[in-house]
Inverse folding.
């Protein structure tokens, strides 16, 4: 295994995950606020599931996002 290639590929994947996740979170929160489901000062729970199918590995990451 080439450590440098692996490191760069992992970073590229994580950047894609981060950008996409942020966009989707912002979209969902803005929609919920516009529909009156959120007032904009809550803390929203978040959960990400990372799957590596070929390795039969699944990791769940829980967190919270403060809106104010």
């Amino acid at each position: 295994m080439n450590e440098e290639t692996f490191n760069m590929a992992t970073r590229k994947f994580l950047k894609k995950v981060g950008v996409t996740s942020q966009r989707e979170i912002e979209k969902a929160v803005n929609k919920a606020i516009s529909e009156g489901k959120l007032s904009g000062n809550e803390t929203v729970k978040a959960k990400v599931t990372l799957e590596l199918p070929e390795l039969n590995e699944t990791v769940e990451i829980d967190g919270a996002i403060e809106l104010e």
